[in-house]
Design goal:
single chain; four-stranded mixed beta sheet; about 25% strand; L-arginine/glycine Amidinotransferase, Chain A; alpha/beta
Length: about 350
């Protein structure tokens, strides 16, 4: 029964990419309009054709002001859905789209508790089922807290995750690693779970995988190398690479591990270390959109992606304003497979 559903890889064809328009002025304050500008740039990159391929973007807006703002920016180029939500981190608050053996789509709706109770906002807990209704797909509700950014799959039932997040008692207390693996097998068609240890410093998600390591092909994983001796994640990034090099696929073969430079040390206006990452890219039908923070390593990171996505247009967008909310482009999107 564990193979009755699959989670298509992110590079598989999309029917749509869902995302959110920053709508809460009290949360974003002076970063509201800059964050909207960065997200608009991401959306325009995804909907622009490349080699005849592009994405249909479906944009959630919360409230009349946000709806008017998005409508004026996109002028009918994207579909707008006026659905209440707390904040834009749709990868975590929304559903995970799956396919069954007959090719029918469904939306897997896990529980959400504000990343272990850190940021509990009105409407976020109910968003996944509301979005599934808009997508007009069958809904499966799972009584287990899981954020979409905490797992990354290769489309063949192999998933990356971190112990720091999934084994954290602030999500699902009194549950074991083997229990979690069984839940992922039963609900996501998982066949093998690859467990890394820790994520980035000061990441309020407790180590989401989409900030540290991503599948870019069934047997190819990309991760970061430290940039500069003052990289705050110097040891963590090297440990991630070492651990990935020892992991094997379903056939017992090692993965090809690609390294790309991290942004290095990125500070907030208050001087705090930010969880900036080049890993938080979104793979579209025709483009790959990578966040950067105008650091010296950005161009090199874009070149690495270009080497491994030769049929996509690689687009780098400064995501410094979005990062003030704690994430970036992958965190605010969720792909719906074709």
């Amino acid at each position: 029964m564990e193979l009755s559903i699959t989670i298509p890889a992110e590079w598989a064809p999309h029917k749509a990419i869902w995302t959110c328009w920053p709508s809460a002025a009290d949360l974003w304050q002076e970063d509201l309009e800059p964050a909207r500008a960065e997200i608009a740039a991401m959306i325009n990159a995804l909907i622009a054709p490349h080699n005849g391929k592009f994405d249909q973007v479906k944009l959630l807006v919360s409230g009349s002001e946000a709806k008017q703002s998005a409508a004026s920016v996109f002028d009918g180029k994207v579909e707008l859905y006026d659905i209440p939500f707390g904040d834009v981190w749709l990868r975590d608050t929304g559903p995970i789209f799956a396919k069954n053996e007959s090719g029918a789509s469904s939306a897997i709706c896990f529980g959400f508790n504000g990343w272990g109770g850190k940021f509990v906002l009105e409407h976020d807990g109910a968003l996944s089922t509301k979005l599934a209704d808009c997508a007009k797909v069958q809904t499966q509700i799972v009584d287990f807290v899981l954020e979409g950014g905490s797992i990354d799959g290769n489309g063949e039932g192999v998933f990356l995750t971190t112990k720091q997040c999934l084994l954290n008692p602030n999500r699902n207390p009194n549950i074991t690693q083997s229990d979690i693996e069984e839940i992922l097998r039963a609900n996501l068609g998982a066949r093998k779970i690859l467990w890394l240890d820790d994520g980035l410093l000061n990441d309020h998600t407790d180590g989401h995988i989409d900030n540290i390591a991503r599948f870019i092909a069934p047997n190819k994983i990309i991760c970061q190398s430290p940039f500069g001796v003052d990289d705050p994640n110097y040891e963590v990034l090297n440990n991630i690479y070492s651990d990935l090099c020892s992991m094997t696929n379903l056939n017992g073969d090692k993965f090809e591990i690609i390294r790309t430079p991290s942004p290095g040390k990125v500070l907030s206006v208050e001087g705090e270390i930010m969880p900036a990452s080049h890993m938080n890219f979104i793979i579209g039908n025709g483009s790959v959109v990578m966040p950067h923070y105008s650091t010296a390593s950005a161009d090199a990171a874009l070149r690495v992606l270009a080497e491994h996505f030769p049929n996509h247009k690689i687009i780098g967008i400064d995501a410094s304003a979005i990062l003030t909310g704690g994430g970036s482009f992958h965190c605010i999107t969720q792909q719906e497979p074709d």
